[in-house]
Structures are given as structure tokens and as C-alpha cells.
Design the sequence.
């Protein structure tokens, strides 16, 4: 009888455990080119009409920004080069703007296989860490702006966010 009860409990609980949905909370943000899924709970702060960047904040006070725009909407885009070459053009285009405005910039990491570049500029208060990447016919522009996370934590978050939405 004990064994029968145990089998009954397992038959009820086990399938629910195996087939349950992902228990991780996600937030979603509507971009100019679709929707981006973000791990965790994020509250939207504002959206910049010119760049399409949406700023969000979590309960820890970490601020992120997300933009997803068609590649062909950028002046530097070249249809006759690879997606990663276009990501490099995107990085050059944006980082040159910050350099011209006397901000310090640094390229941190690039991944030609996954088609992204991670870089930062310092706004004279703290580092803004970006990931520019290629996703189908769009560019994903991801930013972490916080002094609550180390640079490594920012990079790990950006890479996970990019892969989740690639």
C-alpha cells in the first residue's frame, strides 16, 4: 500500500516537474524592430525616439538600455560586407562620436562567430558598457550603466542578453 501511494505521488508530481515552464522571470521591451526578452524584472524608465533606445531599471538600481533597429537604417551600413564587418562599422561609428566629444573609449572584447563587440566609454562618472551585435537584419545595441556591478558582471549580463535575443 505504501508503495502504491508513493507511485501515485510520483505520477502526479514528476510530470509537472518535468514539463513545467521556465521559472525564470523575464521582462520584455518593445523595440523598433520587435521585442527583446530580458532576464529578471525590469521597470521601463523612458524611450529615446531618435535612437530607439529604451532605458530600464531593476530593483538593485542597475540601469540598462536596449535598442534594436534595422541595419539598413544606419548611414554606415554596407550590404556587401559580412554581418560582423557591419558590427565593426557600428562600433567605429559610435565610439568615434564619443572620442570626438572627449570621452575615453575602450574596446573590451569581440566575438566574430557570434557577431558582437563589447566596448565602453566613461562619461566622467562611470563606465557605460555596450554590446553591439548582429541579429538577422537588425543591430542589437545593449548597454549597462551601473556602479553596482563589476565590469565582468556587466559583460556576462550583456553576453547572456545578446544570446537570448540573437
Sequence:
Amino acid at each position: 500500500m505504501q508503495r502504491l501511494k508513493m507511485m501515485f505521488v510520483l505520477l502526479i508530481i514528476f510530470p509537472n516537474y518535468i514539463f513545467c515552464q521556465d521559472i525564470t522571470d523575464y521582462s520584455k521591451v518593445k523595440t523598433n524592430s520587435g521585442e527583446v526578452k530580458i532576464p529578471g524584472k525590469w521597470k521601463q524608465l523612458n524611450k529615446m525616439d531618435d535612437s530607439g533606445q529604451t532605458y530600464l531599471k531593476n530593483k538593485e538600481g542597475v540601469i540598462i538600455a536596449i535598442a534594436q533597429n534595422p541595419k539598413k537604417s544606419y548611414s554606415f551600413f554596407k550590404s556587401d560586407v559580412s554581418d560582423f564587418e557591419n558590427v565593426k562599422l557600428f562600433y567605429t561609428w559610435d565610439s568615434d562620436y564619443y572620442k570626438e566629444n572627449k570621452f575615453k573609449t575602450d574596446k573590451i572584447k569581440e566575438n566574430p562567430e557570434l557577431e558582437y563587440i563589447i566596448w565602453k566609454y566613461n562619461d566622467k562618472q562611470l563606465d557605460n558598457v555596450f554590446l553591439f551585435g548582429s541579429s538577422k537584419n537588425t543591430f542589437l545595441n545593449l548597454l549597462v550603466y551601473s556602479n553596482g556591478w563589476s565590469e565582468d558582471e556587466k559583460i556576462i549580463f550583456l553576453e547572456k542578453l545578446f544570446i537570448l535575443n540573437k
Remarks:
- Residues 25-165 form a domain with the Protein Transport Mog1p; Chain A fold (CATH 3.40.1000.10).
- The radius of gyration is 20 Å.
- Confidence is low (pLDDT under 50) at residues 14-21.
